[in-house]
Amino acid sequence: MSKAVILLSGGLDSTTVLAIAKSKGFKCYALSFDYGQKQLSELVSAKTIAKNFGVIEHRIMRVCLDDIGGSALTDPTLEVPKFDESNEIPITYVPARNTIFLSFALAWAEVLDSQSIFIGVNALDYSGYPDCRPEYIEAYETMANLATKQSVEGDKIQIHTPLINLTKAEIINQGRALGVDYSMTTTCYQANDKSEACGICDACVLRRNGFEQAGVSDPTYYQ
Amino acid sequence: MSKAVILLSGGLDSTTVLAIAKSKGFKCYALSFDYGQKQLSELVSAKTIAKNFGVIEHRIMRVCLDDIGGSALTDPTLEVPKFDESNEIPITYVPARNTIFLSFALAWAEVLDSQSIFIGVNALDYSGYPDCRPEYIEAYETMANLATKQSVEGDKIQIHTPLINLTKAEIINQGRALGVDYSMTTTCYQANDKSEACGICDACVLRRNGFEQAGVSDPTYYQ
Questions:
Q1: Which CATH number fits domain B3-214: 3.40.50.2300, 3.30.230.10, 3.40.50.620, 3.40.50.11810?
Q2: Burial (Cβ within 10 Å: 0-12, 13-18, ≥19) of residue B92
Q3: Which of B61, B99, B142 to mutate to test the interface with A (most CBs of A within 10 A)?
C-alpha cells in the first residue's frame, strides 16, 4: 500500500477525494489548514471525517493567510457575497491558497516518502478560481518534480485530482457509491459554529444545485 | 516605482538581492520566515538589514516546518554536518522550503499588486538543493502565472534570481559595490544567539571561500 497526503478542508469535494483515495488502497494522511478562514467549523468537520475514514494521521496546520488578507474568506471587513453567475473571479478567492496548501502537502509527502498528493479541485461547478484549473495543476506537478530531493532522485510526485472534470452531481453520486455520509461535511463559506450554512454563498449554491441535480436530499442545515 | 517582495533570510545572498532590488528602483517589501530553524539569530539579522535598507515593510511569518521535520536545520535530533564535497544533497536540505517560501511571497505580492518576487538562489557555490536550480525557478514561475487572479488577468509574475549564475565571490563583490555591510548578515546553519558562526558547516565554508576568493576580509565572527 502506498501512502498519500490528502488535502482535507472538511467540505463535500475533499471528503469525496478522501473516500476515493481510500478506495484505491492508499494509506491516507489528511492535511487541513487553520488559515484564518471565517468558516472555522469546517475544521471540526475535517476532524470528524478524518476519524470516520480511519486515516493514519490528521494534521491541522496553522498558516497565517489572514495576515496576508485580500479575500472575503479571511478578511473580517469584507463580506462574503451572494452567489453570482458572472464569470468574474469572486472576492472569496484567497491569494495563492492552493499553491500554499499543495506546498505544505509536498513537504509532508517527502518526509513520509509518499509520491501521491490528492486535492479536490474541480473546474466545472466551481467559483472560477485560477488555482482549480487543470493547467494550473499540471504546472504545479511539473514544478514539484523539480523541487524536492525525492523527485530529483527519481520518485515522481503525482498530484491526483479525481474530481477535476466532474459535475457536482457526479461528485455526490461517486461519494455516495463509496458510502460517504455528507452530513459530516461543511461547505458554506460562512457556516456558523454549529456548521449551519447560509444557503446563499457560491459554495452553498453549488452544493445545493449538485444535490438537486443528483436527485439526492441534501443533509445540510441551512439557516 | 514598482513594488517587489524580497525573500530575506538574513544571510549573505538574500541581503545582496535586497541591495540589487533596491538599486533597480523597486519599492521593497521584505519577507522572512520563522520556520523552526536552529539559526534563529538570522532573523535578528534580517530585522537589522530590513531596517538598514529602509524597506517599506518587513514581515516575519511563522510557518511550522519544524512540525514537518526531515532536515538537520529544523530537527533537534539531527546534527548539522560538517562541509562535505560530495555531490549528494545534504541533510540540511529542508523539504519544499523554497516552494513554501515562494508561495507565501506569491500571495503577498498579489495583495500588494506587485508582479516581482526576488529570491537569492544560487546554483554555483551552493549545497546542491534542488529548489535552487534555474529549471526549478522557471517551472515555479510558469506555475505562478497560472495560479493567481492577477496573473490570469494579465499581470505577469516574475521570479527574479539575480545571483543564480554567480560565484560566491562575484556575489560579494556585487554587494560591496552596492555598499552592503556584510557584518550585518548571518550565514551559519547553527549560528548561536550572538550570530557567531560555527565555521565548518556548508554555509560557513561556502561563505569563507567566497570572501577568500573575492580577496575581501570576512567580517563574520567564527567560534
A1: 3.40.50.620
A2: buried
A3: B99
